[in-house]
Write a structure and sequence with these properties.
The protein has about 375 residues and is an alpha/beta fold. Helix content is about 50%, strand content about 15%. It has a 6-stranded parallel sheet, sandwiched between helices.
């Protein structure tokens, strides 16, 4: 019997979409070791030059003109105005996509971002492709660019997201609330005493984890400076992600901080860092918050990107798993207040655990493999 072949499509190397695709790939191989998985950056594969332009433009808008992104994100007028352009891009990319499909011959295709999902969905409609297609959302709510009749299943984070899809005409039976896919290791129990001993963490002093996503975005330096001025001892774990300049800045200064600090770049042991932390201060990217929830970690949100992260914030606040800081100084004040009110901190921890989906990647992988049998 031929081994199953699964095509995973994502965009951007340092992104939650890529991390989600890697989590699904790992889960597929845990469930079925003989499965063959091809994990492809769809934008780089189809248009490597365009990828560079889009990444640079997106980051520039987010950093300098976030109000522009807020206007563009899931705006019905914008969606309608660029729908013909999107169709043209999909037709232009159909030749490369055909080559990929003909060479790999997947039994199922799963996409962790709307662009490749739409590209494959349109290809299915235009050329009669019968391969099952699964769209995997990496934020808490869907937007209009996810809506395609030829997607066989959508994976979402909550019933609210399911309802949003249903409102836009997607049959409820096509939707699964498995959650945002995170590395299966986040479901495992961490030897917290062992991690503390290895890192040199004092078990008696609270640990605050500060992150800015995979790219180290947000006012992390200002947050750390504010935390250094609070009136109770803490320990800080600072994760700079792929932001080498930020990592080097902290490496040069961390011994001057009042609070004991541990600095990481692109860390591969986020599950351990979260397990030994008391709370996290972060921008609310879909993967980061899903990982934090899996460890029952209360979240202080700061500087959410308009659009997807603003929607993630709404979800977390409504569920009582997070509070939102209005500034870096406010983040420090909220940290101190939470650490001084153990009941509130414990309630947030319980709420995080209630909505966590640590087995998301395994559940998604199981569905993908089941699709290959139909």
């Amino acid at each position: 019997m031929a081994r199953k072949k699964i095509l995973l499509l994502h965009i951007s190397v340092y992104s939650g979409h890529h991390s989600a695709a890697l989590a699904v790939e790992k889960a597929l191989k845990l469930l079925e070791p003989d499965v063959e998985v091809l994990n492809v950056n769809a934008v780089h594969y189809t248009n490597p030059f365009v990828e560079k332009v889009l990444n640079r433009t997106y980051m520039g808008v987010i950093r300098n003109k976030p109000e522009v992104w807020e206007y563009l994100y899931d705006n019905p007028k914008v969606f309608r105005s660029i729908s013909k352009l999107r169709d043209l891009i999909h037709r232009f990319n159909s030749g490369k996509l055909k080559t990929l499909l003909d060479e790999f011959r997947p039994d199922a295709i799963a996409c962790t971002q709307a662009f490749p999902c739409g590209m494959v969905a349109d290809y299915k409609n235009s050329f009669g492709l019968k391969v099952p297609l699964i769209g995997i959302l990496t934020d808490c709510y869907p937007h209009s660019y996810w809506l395609f009749d030829s997607v066989d299943y959508y994976i979402v984070n909550s019933e609210a997201a399911t309802d949003r899809f249903v409102e836009h005409g997607i049959p409820r039976e096509k939707i699964r609330t498995f959650g945002i896919p995170i590395d299966p290791k986040f479901a495992d129990t961490v030897d917290m005493d062992g991690v503390r001993a290895k890192m040199g963490i004092d078990k008696k002093i609270p640990v605050v984890l500060i992150m800015g996503g995979g790219q180290g975005m947000g006012p992390i330096q200002e947050i750390v400076s504010s935390l250094n001025r609070i009136n109770r001892p803490i320990q800080m774990i600072i994760v700079a992600g792929s932001n080498k300049r930020l990592f080097n800045w902290f490496e040069r200064r961390r011994y001057n901080f009042r609070m004991k600090s541990f600095v990481y770049g692109y860390a591969s042991n986020i599950d351990e860092l979260m397990a030994v932390s008391t709370l996290i201060i972060t921008k609310p990217g879909g993967l980061t918050i899903s990982e934090a929830l899996s460890k029952g970690l209360p979240i202080i949100i700061i500087n959410p990107i308009p659009g997807q992260e603003a929607k993630n914030t709404e979800y977390l606040l409504r569920e009582g798993a997070a509070i939102k800081a209005s500034s870096t100084g406010d983040a420090a004040l909220l940290t101190e207040a939470l650490l001084n009110h153990s009941l509130k901190l414990e309630q947030m921890r319980q709420n995080a655990g209630r909505i966590a989906k640590p087995n998301s990647a395994i559940d998604i992988a199981r569905l993908i493999l089941e699709c290959t049998n139909s």
